[in-house]
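Quick one: structure tokens for this chain, please?
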Amino acid sequence: MRYYLVPGAHHANFGTPAFAAAWDSLSVLENWVDGGEQAAKPITTDMNYNRTRPLREYPTWPKYHAGDPNMARSFVCTR
């Protein structure tokens, strides 16, 4: 089991989420179950603002480090 938090996404809140995540988690899950291929540093795209964020396995979290804050590569994995 893997648990990924989507940074900036609101779950069960009213109104429009701040982050509209687009990540094909079903295909990732199928590849893992059927082929043993685990997701390696998955990235999601925010469809509202055309920005990317790295997804990290809980309990780690992507934290902004340096560079363009709209790009996943500008984040590091932290606890």
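The radius of gyration is 13 Å.
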